[in-house]
UniProtKB/TrEMBL annotation:
Belongs to the LysR transcriptional regulatory family. This is Transcriptional regulator, LysR family. Residues 1-60 form the HTH lysR-type domain. Keywords: DNA-binding, Transcription, Transcription regulation.
Length: 297
């Protein structure tokens, strides 16, 4: 039974990481040991679980079926084992978080270091992901995202102060191309767009005018899924960019960037930690919720 569990754990690690080497690093064993465990499991089950090439590892239909069944079972076992720490009066165990690349900014200023120092029994697995992952199916304890995109059947807890998305450009760009006065003026400008490449369309820029929400589908001069690239291009005067105010704050303070269309960019409620409804919230997750709310206040 123990070897069966180890083989199934190895299978899940490969399925999650799409790599025997990465799975070995997660489990603390060699990639050959993981490969051997998975091979023996396939022999025992009589089905191929992975389609392997020299460059990639992909789940077969049988592998997808096994993963779907095992993920909630292993999550429940992990939660049960972790709950033993609660009997000793402290949160403990592995806390898996799925965080959007935009929301990841809430972990700046030593937030995670402070949380881990307060709760030495907790380990973190933080996946930065913009693909709309099903956190229940993928075995995450919680996610952090904008409230508007969280499914209604989830419990959502506001864990940040108000945020604000603003539009910025370099003084050099504005001197050469003029200052947009209304959101629709952006169609006349070179814009730097952010997009998730697993989705068919780039992100639409959102504004508010007289209490009415406006979306502008810009035709970007450059599209990217990396905020650092957007910042660099805006500083270099390539075009106009949009993003969270905290992202641009150092460059606004230095004068390297200036904000435009401010009257169309009111604050919003910020980011939410969300998790599936359940009868009991694990102590490790409750500890994070309380910590982030304390930081917010």
């Amino acid at each position: 039974m123990r070897s069966d569990l180890a083989a199934l754990e190895a299978f899940l690690a490969v399925a999650d990481n799409r790599s025997f080497r990465a799975a070995g690093q997660v489990l603390g064993v060699t990639s050959s040991a993981v490969s051997q465990a998975v091979h023996k499991l396939e022999e025992r089950l009589g089905v191929q679980l992975f389609a392997r090439t020299t460059r990639s590892v992909a789940l077969t239909e049988a592998g997808e079926h096994l993963r779907a069944g095992l993920r909630p079972a292993f999550a429940q076992m992990r939660e049960t084992v972790d709950s033993l720490g609660e009997l000793k009066g402290r949160p403990a165990g592995l806390l898996r978080l799925n965080v959007s690349s935009v929301a990841e900014a809430i972990f700046s200023e030593g937030v995670l270091a402070a949380f881990l120092a307060r709760h030495p029994g907790i380990r973190l697995d933080v996946a930065v992901d913009d693909t709309g992952t099903d956190i229940v199916k993928e075995g995450f304890d919680a996610g952090i995202q904008l409230g508007e995109v969280i499914a209604q059947d989830m419990v959502a807890v506001n864990v940040t102060r108000e945020e604000r998305q603003i539009v910025v450009a370099s003084p050099r760009y504005l001197a050469a191309h003029g200052v947009p006065r209304r959101p629709r003026d952006l169609h006349k400008h070179a814009c730097i767009g952010w997009r998730v490449y697993s989705r068919p369309a780039p992100y639409r820029w959102e504004f508010t005018s007289n209490g009415r929400e406006i979306e502008v589908a810009i035709e970007a001069r450059v599209d990217t899924n990396e905020m650092a690239v957007m910042v660099r291009l805006a500083l270099d005067g390539v075009g106009i960019a949009a993003g969270l105010e905290r992202t641009w704050a150092p460059h606004l303070a230095s004068g390297k960037l200036v904000s435009v269309l401010d009257e169309y960019c009111p604050p919003f409620s910020g980011f939410f930690l969300y998790y599936p409804r359940r009868t009991r919230v694990p102590a490790k997750l409750r500890a994070l919720i309380d910590f982030l709310k304390e930081r917010r206040n």
